[in-house]
Every structure is written in structure tokens, then in C-alpha cells.
Amino acid sequence: MSFAQQGGVATLPPSSPKYLKEILVPDFEPLWSPVQIGSTALSNRVALAPMTRISATADGHATDRMASYYESYARGGFGLLITEGIYPDTAYSQGYLFQPGLATEGQAQSWAIVVEAVHLAGARIFAQLMHAGSQTQGNRFVGSAISPSAIAPKGEQLAFYRGEGPYPVPGEITAAQMDEVRDGFVSAALHAKQAGFDGVEIHGANGYLLDQFLTDYLNHRTDNYGGSPENRVRFAAEICVAVREAVGPDMTVGIRISQAKVSDNDHRWSGGAEEAQVIFETLGATGINFIHTTEYRAVAPAFETGPESLAALAKQHSGLTVIANGNLDDPETAASLLRDGDADIIALGKAALANRNWPHRVRNNLALDELNTNLFAPVADIKDWELELPA
Predict the structure, then answer these.
(1) Structural domain tally of the chain?
(2) What is the pTM of this model?
(3) Could you confirm whether 217 is annotated as catalytic?
(4) Pick the catalytic residue: 69, 161, 167, 208?
């Protein structure tokens, strides 16, 4: 026989080519297969997750430093980059000082340099459009915030994003202001298209405005946007439809969804899997191309009532391409999520900060570095040494 029997299990000898391929070099092939997401063709299924880096100019323009930062991930082998949250209007949307915007023509022009650098390095790039709502920590346009209801977020602002103290109580958003928010997302998406972005991701996660509508304890509205899950997801769905229609079929559009928040890591949807079904079916019917789920652990069950992860539920109920994010640093865990069909693309955050060439390292069976927490001290901006891409 060409193999030894050990305890009834066939074991390949160490000299076998099949052993060398499958045992010594793990099979992460699902990570490297190309994929089409909307109008965007990706060379692999490893994406850079959006991460707040607060390194724009004070008036929200992208910089050469930011272009080098994003270019380094493209050169490191990531097929898709999703930017940090970009504010879409000059009213209530800005969440952080030195956050970039896509609210003006000038801001759009500044992003064109970033997009060109990423494209020349071989990757695609989506702009994440974010309205902070009541979770704002710094806004140069207004001194107050808006939210579905006049209820402050839990927790306190984050010092490494230049925040301090508890979140103030916001004003309850009016119907007219909701129209302005919707128009802001559309205008910013068109600015993103002008700048050459391949797509846009609408930020509906992590406790920002659209997620505040989804959150029962922050949304006490009695109109068509409060109460039931069908009502609470309505505003996010309307914005998806409006953006989808505005940018046309040659630009990819999606939305990011989570349960946990920047200021409330333990939050779970009170309606469980049934609420998830309503949310994902509604968003799946808007005409967008993808849903990007983010959890602390992407592969963990979303609810105690079943084994399905939030990504798996999104895949099951939306019918869309699903990007999954959350502690997928280990390549085998990331590949298994794709192999099992629970997601189509994996997105890396902290693992990418530690290894801006994570795809290159994994594909060549090279060791991965641990995250240097100095990246977030004293503030979570782009550090100069961060731009030096390791071999």
C-alpha cells in the first residue's frame, strides 16, 4: 500500500507530493479565486475593512499620506479596499475631526489621487459613506447632533478619535432633515463616482445614524420609521434605493450592517433571527449589490437560538454577495467561511493594520505579525512608519 494505516485512518507519508501540498502548505485556495461584485471584478476575495484613521486635512480633503496608506494595501495583495468612513454632507454627518469628506467637489478631487494610486497598484476601491448621527465626536459644521430619537448613545467618546466624555443628547431628526440626509448620501455617491471609485458602501453599522434607526433602544419613533423591524430598516433601505438609482449600473453599491456598536459592543437585535430575516430581505430587495456584515467574530452564531452567523443569515435572506468581517485573522478560519458558502469575500481590519501585505504573506506561507497597538496612540491616525511596507 502507498500509505500507512494508523488507528484505522489512512495517513500519507511525508514524502508524498499530496502530503506536501495539503498538509505542509494549507489549502487557502478559496481566498484567491476571482469574484464579481456588482460591476466590479476582483482578483481575489480578501478585502481591507474600513477603519477610521482621521488623517485628512481639517477641511476634509484626502492627502498624499492617505494615498500612500491605501496604496500599500493594494501592493500588499488585497483585491478590494474599503475606505474609512467618509462624511457625505456639510451639516450633521461628520463624526470626527480630520475625517475625510465627499460632500464637496474639492473633496472629490482630493480622493481622485488616492483612487488612481490604488488602481495603478492593481486593486479596486469602494468609498464608505458614513453619517455619524448621535455618535459624532467632532463636527466643524454644527455643534449639535441628530438621531432617530432624542436619546444619547451608550458609553463615552473615544480618546484615540479625539473624543472626550459622554455623548450629548441629540435632537430628534425631522422629516425634512431625513430628506437632506438622503440627498447627502446621493450627492456623495455621485462625487465618489466622479473621483473614480469602483463602488460605494453605505454605512449602516457600528452605531452610526442608519444603525441608530435599526436599534430599538435608540429609536422610539411612532411614525413609519420606528417600532417594528420593517419600519426601523426603512430609512436605510430608502437610501440604498436612492443611491443605487443615482449612480447607475456601472458602479457597485452595498451596505454595511452590524449588531454591535462603537459604544455598545454587546448589543444584539431583540427580535433575533426573525428580525435579521426582515432586515436582510428588505435590503436585498433594494437593488444594491452586496451586504457587508461585521461582528466581533464573523463565524460565531449571531443569536443563541441557532448556529448561523450574521454573514450566513445575510447570505440566506438577501440573495446578495456578502462580505464578512470580524476576527478573521487566521487564514484557515477566513477560507472556511468562504468554503462553507456563508460569505463571498472576507474583510480584514486589525489583521490588515498589522500586515498590510496579508494576502502576499498567506499565499507564500510567511509568518504574520502581531498588531502594534501604538497605531492607536495617542490618536488613531496614519503613522509615518505605517507606510513602510514590509517584505
Answers:
(1) 1
(2) 0.93
(3) no
(4) 208
